[in-house]
Amino acid sequence: MTTPTRIGLIGYGYWGPNLARNFHALANAQLVAVADADPKRLDEPARLYHARTHADYRELLADPTLDAVAISTPARTHFDIAREALNQGKHVLVEKPLAMSSAEARALIEIAAEKQRVLMVGHTFEHNPAVWKIRELVESRTIGEVFYVYSNRVNLGRVQRDINALWSIAPHDISILIYVLDAMPLAVSARGGTYLSDNVEDVVFVTLTFPNQVLAHVHASWLDPSKTRQMTIVGSQKMIVYDDVDAEAKLRIYDKGAYKHGAEYGEFQIKVRSGDIFIPKLDSSEPLRNECAHFVECIREGKRPRTDGENGLRVIRVLEAAQESLARNGATVRIV
Amino acid sequence: MTTPTRIGLIGYGYWGPNLARNFHALANAQLVAVADADPKRLDEPARLYHARTHADYRELLADPTLDAVAISTPARTHFDIAREALNQGKHVLVEKPLAMSSAEARALIEIAAEKQRVLMVGHTFEHNPAVWKIRELVESRTIGEVFYVYSNRVNLGRVQRDINALWSIAPHDISILIYVLDAMPLAVSARGGTYLSDNVEDVVFVTLTFPNQVLAHVHASWLDPSKTRQMTIVGSQKMIVYDDVDAEAKLRIYDKGAYKHGAEYGEFQIKVRSGDIFIPKLDSSEPLRNECAHFVECIREGKRPRTDGENGLRVIRVLEAAQESLARNGATVRIV
Amino acid sequence: MTTPTRIGLIGYGYWGPNLARNFHALANAQLVAVADADPKRLDEPARLYHARTHADYRELLADPTLDAVAISTPARTHFDIAREALNQGKHVLVEKPLAMSSAEARALIEIAAEKQRVLMVGHTFEHNPAVWKIRELVESRTIGEVFYVYSNRVNLGRVQRDINALWSIAPHDISILIYVLDAMPLAVSARGGTYLSDNVEDVVFVTLTFPNQVLAHVHASWLDPSKTRQMTIVGSQKMIVYDDVDAEAKLRIYDKGAYKHGAEYGEFQIKVRSGDIFIPKLDSSEPLRNECAHFVECIREGKRPRTDGENGLRVIRVLEAAQESLARNGATVRIV
Amino acid sequence: MTTPTRIGLIGYGYWGPNLARNFHALANAQLVAVADADPKRLDEPARLYHARTHADYRELLADPTLDAVAISTPARTHFDIAREALNQGKHVLVEKPLAMSSAEARALIEIAAEKQRVLMVGHTFEHNPAVWKIRELVESRTIGEVFYVYSNRVNLGRVQRDINALWSIAPHDISILIYVLDAMPLAVSARGGTYLSDNVEDVVFVTLTFPNQVLAHVHASWLDPSKTRQMTIVGSQKMIVYDDVDAEAKLRIYDKGAYKHGAEYGEFQIKVRSGDIFIPKLDSSEPLRNECAHFVECIREGKRPRTDGENGLRVIRVLEAAQESLARNGATVRIV
User: Fold this and answer.
1) Which CATH superfamily is domain A127-284+318-334 in?
2) pTM of the predicted model, to two decimals?
3) CATH classification code of C5-123
4) Which residues in chain A are closer than 8 Å to D277, comparing Cβ atoms?
5) What ipTM goes with this model?
């Protein structure tokens, strides 16, 4: 097909404008319509993108000329809207988290399969060249054996009331971890603090156990003075610091390590080795642009997205287990 | 007394040279003798400080003219050496941790009381002007109510084989937390990763619950590419970032917060407030110099040290509970 | 008038897309047409903004419904295009430098006056809240007496062949200096290095003398490994560092100084004073958005722009003198 | 000889304590005596190093058992004291600048030759592994052809009254430039600002022309809010940033450049190339320790120091020309 893919956007709050801008910028797509329950938000997409606007997303879905919708509404509405959209025969991109339970996620996967429509989740970081590079360094064993990984994703930003920091922020870390380590975690424990709204954790600390004794730790918070988006991967041969807010040095690869030194039998010492630091030049494409382009490409070429429904489900299985651990005061919960 | 306080130093490995340099620099003290089991290490203190040297610390302790000893030997030897020193009538400064169990710590406290000698533990950060300032900001409620605190103390540095990262590194964080919050934690959970030596955690993640729902988190590791010593204190009115390796801005006080906005009955929103940042000028004294000077001052004036045996015991009680949690795979352990 | 101001944009190369995006985003303006001699560049504005496109800017100017044009073509064409646009009765925003000589700039000012049209130059930094704040701190003498100012504006970026780094980059520094110090420099000297193209300086070092012995220094280069946009203002009471690429701390106000200490007659010493650092919260509006909005507001309300033709002329008078100094190997040239 | 080299130190003000500490730490040297006109300063070296002390340096020089002296007195006294010391048969290390004129420097060189004594100047940075690495990268043409170099050495620190920022701070930059480029500058121009004391420039901006059109610029100031010690070397193939206050990344080597692209005849374009960044692991030895060890080694092995009298003279010839330029308002002065 040579006509642009016709896209509708549902939800024009915090994240929706970014999706709108990126779909609008694609040559093979067209942002045709935008829906938001708050009519005050609709002036902007009408003016900037000449998009048709709807206060009721059902009107948007009723348009038979739309090929696909992107959903960036509050997380608790993802499932219902995505289901309706798939049932209307639309290809669907849902912001993370894909849904609020694995049952919901599985239902969406089934409908998408049945309707033969693309179902994709907005795990942006899997469309990020820095993360691709980390996976490559891990997979090729350039960093040796992975020991542990930790991630800090904090900011004073988008405080939410309907979902906690685990469901709002940590899906990014979990999706990166699963992708980079190419494995599901076996178990998780999580603790959090609740300060601003009842029963909504503003900060969570999550520990994940991956196969081969790989440990991962995630600190997610929307109650922090500084914007930090940093992940450190410690390997036996090299260590990587991924700082997403550093314009010049997103990835630092340290030729550092510690190793046993000494007689095979008897006494040994641990020696520390410290070498050069290498900052690779990365593809400078915008991850969200890549994500939107990938969604359109999958629709047009009948491909399965990199962050498909199964990918979204895997993250939700971890979130569910972590949520159970939060409720049980940090008890270790196996991921089934 | 007007003659200098005569000091002996036991242990001249990693930390001992720093103690030697600082005691040597004090006008009212004299570094008289140094002991280390490794004779190769004794050339330096002999040359730099004209100190008498001993391969056997018992010889050093036998010198009746010594007023006090500082102990910076491997942690597992702290108790025995400190006990002997006290029994010989010496005032004692022990590097952290004070001992390897609360029973040992209590025994040392008792002997010191009986012998009427100063017993002090090297919790350096309680002698640090930046930490004093944080306590002042917390105590005066300048930052409002404390919500949570987290600390990262990581480096590729002094990998140990006899004690894990919890006992080696985290005593600093725990002593700062107790001091700054002016409270003991109620419970602790800890998880760790073991990579270099069997049964020795190279990295630990520790969660502590303090009274008033204050949550604290400590990440300690000697297997990390970058030296980080950072603690963040999030309050309801202001937030503090304490970065010990930033020469210009050790303390940043952010006039930032989040608060409920809206009708008393019914719907409310969380609003975020972001204001100025303030970097206070701090006393530039070296914390370890302060610590050494304080030890000497307590000896000379019969004062109780700020970081006395009880202080050391409190930290050990937390370490013991955290160690138990490590052994029980992160289970929450109450601190008795 | 309640209909949007109709804007045409001439030049869609390096900077034009930023102007297009910002005019498009304004509620009271409409980006109607875009012209560029390179037709390949016109697809994007057609798609993103539904703008009419022209390979010949004269066609764009011929549209009687256009109220105003923004000109972001190569600097050597600014004068001709701006003159034609004014003669066609359009309000005109010209990217810096306004023209290539003070004679040209004066001619544009005259035509604009005669035609009663707004003439504005794109000195973006005078629409920047950080620069407003600096002016306020200088004007109120909060920093005491200004001693000297220096500025580094370097990058590996937009290497040009038709104008040198002085005319391409330094207009920003010069416009900030005149605005912040509220004075014209008395004299200038400049030296440069020519590496990539014959007779085009890739780097310049410019020294400016302002009234009251205030010295200013500007280093501008497009041949540098790191993006730096930093200006330091040293006063007798306080010092300011303005780092435009620091997201968290654009402005640091240091309570630092040096002062004479000692007997009125005879010996004195210079003492150094070092106090707190203060990072004020700044209005987070985008400077280019402010600039575009200001242009439209001046058109709609018949106001004189902050960066009017006279403002553009002042900067060109300094550039001319600096260019003469470059040609005379750094000789001091008085600004007439 | 197997006995330690016996060292006397003259001047225990700002820099002397660093020399004392480093000589004291050397195994093959002994700090025997310290002289300072201010007797209050002599307590510390007596206590720390058991050094004999003298209020009159002539007494120190009279000691026939001293092999060598290090001179860290005010710059204007360097010549007289160094001359006396050489005449007394001592080997001499003089802090920079070696003297206050090239005539004085030449006289010292002559006396040293006649007396067959080592004469060395304290250009610390030529004993710095980072600077060695830069020279290696320049010499091997790894960075291609050198285009230009600029250096910022500023701080709010040691404000002086007897010599200006040119003579106090810039000797470091000039010595590094001559060493790294392996060439003398051909001409210099300098401008400065005088704020705190009459006729003493607190800040200078110096432009140097080296052979092959290499341009260098030095900004030196003791009136600046932040400590900066940064030098950037721009080559045709790579660029280096040397940041002496960055503990982790002293040297960053950017694989960046700009080059001509296009037809041999007719039009060409300048393209920009941006690649990886490489941070080499450097020898972590302390430069001043290297300097002191090198001085002792030259004495003991009869070697000519890397920073010998001729080296000191070269820097002074540049300083003299720069001083003349300052006096002539920035006129270009050829270096003879």
Assistant:
1) Dihydrodipicolinate Reductase; domain 2 (3.30.360.10)
2) 0.96
3) 3.40.50.720
4) 248-249, 278-279, 281
5) 0.95
